[in-house]
Amino acid sequence: MDSALVKQEVVRQVQTQYAMDNAKRLIDTINEHCFERCVPKPGASLSSGEQTCFTACMEKYMNAWNAVSTACIGRAQRDQNI
């Protein structure tokens, strides 16, 4: 196998692992933050208000994450073109 192809494959695998690690970190952060914010007294199940709060909190985090990611990717692409 050509060394350039091996290098490309290794880079692709590292990028995939990095993306998976970032996604896991995001989910962990969302769960921790939103649970603390929305579930003051944990019980056997979530009330409808807690579920609504948790869902809204998760959506806000995801929207913010997507906005930041999009801005970072755009900036990185512009920097590469300079």
Brief rundown of the structure:
This protein has 82 residues and is mostly helical.
Output the keywords.
82 residues, mainly alpha
* Residue runs with pLDDT of under 50 for 5 or more positions: none
Share of helix among residues?
Answer: over 70%
Mean pLDDT: 89
**Largest sheet: number of strands, sense, barrel closure:** none
* Percent of sequence in beta strands: under 5%
What value does the Rg take, in angstroms? 19 Å
Number of strands: 0
For the record, give the distance between the C-alpha atoms at the N and C termini, rounded to a whole number. Answer: 33 Å
Structural class based on helices, strands and sheet pairing? mainly alpha
Shape: elongated
Report on this model:
Helix content is 85%, strand content 0%. With 82 residues, the chain is mainly alpha-helical. The radius of gyration is 19 Å and the shape is elongated. The model has no long low-confidence stretch (mean pLDDT 89).
Write the layout of secondary structure elements.
Layout: H1 3-38, H2 48-81
